[in-house]
Design goal:
elongated; single chain; mainly beta; 429 residues; ten-stranded antiparallel beta sheet; 2 domains; 41% strand; Jelly Rolls; eight-stranded antiparallel beta sheet
């Protein structure tokens, strides 16, 4: 009997993970654009509320195919099926007073308030924040810093929501382990290396009345995602007023005794100029990723010239230093290439890298201007080709760059440096 019980126990232990895996619902990958809410019924949806709430009172369907939610009690309506690699699109509005809401993606496990998922926040003027629920993790949360507070990772910039009564468009792209929410066409945030990459989609009931309509899902992959952005017109990256459109990064960022974050001390905007103190090491980067462009940057040294750089095609997570192609700004070395974190490029037919750090010297003597005077960097990125021109003189060119697209960064790595007049143009301009 003991021997039989032991064998039975071993079999149960071996089969338990297999049974759990077999019992887990496999996420569907959409193959075409599909209407999730037909505007007439709740077919394909499950409604869940906390406590003894009545779903037919909280969730109703109004004329015009509008899904109306009273906001009370707390809960959600979710898709009956799980999805992966998709873009979900929904229009929403606050019919009266504003309040709280959210879109939960990659929801797994049992129905409860709140289920394990990643929340794309829908609170008025906070839409685009992330909240991890149930232990979901992603790079931007685990790395900490000034945008992270508890379970929250704040959106990049100011809100992009319309006033109450007007319809907004919320689009969430889930590609592999990356999640990107857009509000009225503006990228609000990004979660990378998310611990979940598929699950059900939920719309919350959490406070005030809210209405939804035109809920659709469609395929999303590396081939049709809206990034990297290829400019079709001039794109001004720095508005001369603030750092909208940029993400500030310093490793182990923390508040000092004065309660200010290190990034707030390292980077500031004054008189239409970005000023970087040069310490500690780090960078600001564009929120968006770009490919195939002409980049114009102007810089000058405010004090004694030391070191900085323009990082092109930043890939992977924020760190010092990320995988990228650096257009060097070290004094007397502007026009050098540095290949960081195992990036590669070919110069004169010879591949440079992959190494932790690799350098390609500029072709001509330094033509930088003295400290206090403005210099220009004109950089062409065309597929894998990168061309560096300093103050009108070509200083370097490489081909077959890897990576060949990504965010654009300005380094903090030495002494005070200033930047202005930063913009992109199409290659054919």
């Amino acid at each position: 009997m003991k021997r039989e019980a032991l064998i039975l126990g071993v079999v149960c232990v071996v089969l338990a993970p297999l049974s759990a895996a077999m019992g887990a619902e496999e996420a569907i990958e959409p193959t075409e654009k599909t209407v999730l809410f037909d505007g007439k019924t709740f077919d394909g949806w499950v409604r869940h509320l906390r406590g003894e709430g009545k779903v037919d009172e909280t969730w109703t369907i109004k004329a015009g195919g509008i899904l109306a939610c009273t906001g009370k009690p707390t809960g959600y309506i979710r898709t009956a099926k799980a999805y992966r690699n998709y873009k979900v699109r929904v229009e929403y509005r606050w019919p009266g007073r504003t309040g709280n809401n959210g879109i939960l993606v990659h929801m797994v496990g049992e129905d409860r308030v709140w289920p394990k998922s990643l929340e794309c926040q829908g609170m008025f003027r906070n839409q685009g924040d992330f909240f991890e629920i149930g232990g979901v993790e992603f790079n931007e949360h685990t790395s900490g810093g000034h945008r992270v507070g508890g379970r929250r990772v704040a959106k990049y910039d100011a809100h992009n929501e319309k006033e109450p009564g007007q319809w907004n468009v919320y689009e969430v792209w889930c590609v592999g382990d990356t999640v990107r929410p857009y509000v009225n066409g503006k990228l609000m945030n990004e979660a990378t290396a998310c611990s979940l990459s598929g699950g059900k989609i939920c719309f919350q009931s959490e406070g005030a009345p809210i209405e939804f309509r035109n809920i659709t899902i469609e395929p999303a992959s590396d081939k049709n995602k809206p990034w990297p952005v290829v400019p079709t017109r001039k794109i001004v990256l720095f508005n001369g007023k603030d750092l909208s459109g940029w993400v500030r990064f310093i490793p182990n960022d923390r508040r000092g005794p004065d309660k200010k974050w290190m990034v707030d001390k390292a980077w500031s905007v004054r008189d239409g100029i970005i000023r970087c103190e040069g310490k500690p090491n780090g960078y600001i980067r564009t929120c968006e990723e770009y490919a195939n462009y002409k980049l114009h940057v102007e810089w000058r040294w405010a004090e004694k010239p030391t070191n900085s750089g323009v990082l092109l095609h930043r890939a992977g997570i924020d760190r010092v230093w990320p995988k990228c192609i650096e257009a060097q700004l070290m004094h007397q070395n502007a026009g050098d290439f540095w290949l960081l974190s195992h990036s590669t490029i070919k110069v004169d037919g010879k591949q440079i890298g992959p190494k932790a750090y690799a350098n390609v010297k500029k072709k001509n003597p330094s033509n930088e201007k003295p400290a206090g005077q403005w210099n220009t960097y004109d950089i062409i990125c065309d597929g894998g080709t990168v061309n560096l021109t300093v103050n009108g003189q070509i200083q370097n060119e490489g081909t077959d760059a890897n990576p060949s697209s990504g965010a654009i960064c300005l380094q903090s790595e030495g002494s005070p440096i200033e930047f202005r007049n930063i913009y992109l143009e199409p290659l054919d301009k």
